[in-house]
Prior knowledge:
This protein has 152 residues and is an alpha+beta fold.
Amino acid sequence: xxxxxxxxxxEDKEKYMGLLLEADPEKEIxxxxxxxxxxxxxxxxxxxxxxxxxxxxxxxxxxLKNIATLPVCRxxxxxxxxxxxxxxxxxxxxxxxxxxxTENMIPFYVLNGFTRYHHTVKNFFVDNYSEEIWDGDLxxxxxxxxxxxxxx
Length: 152
């Protein structure tokens, strides 16, 4: 039942805004990177169950900006398969993929190969979001960046 296929979304990306907002609650911030980014969706049983957005940072780095799975579909490995798919897609284009995340999500990204610490942006969530950001019971303040080498 965990069969999933992936498609690149080239137009009308905003129709997935509900899913995008699962990972990033500020619509205007999402719109900024969504337009410039590459979006992929995961489809299982003819339903979009997950999405990911990748943006170019520079000639050597791309960034995983947004990844979300429908709440009812979490825990089935869809996000992990989607990450593996984009890692394969970008391995010939970039040297590394970075991801910025909350403290609670670091273990998920480490499990998916983002094992190298990159940098921290202090007060990121406080400075960039109109409301307080919470990840479970963790008040999010700093953004932690990790990366995965794509050349290995």
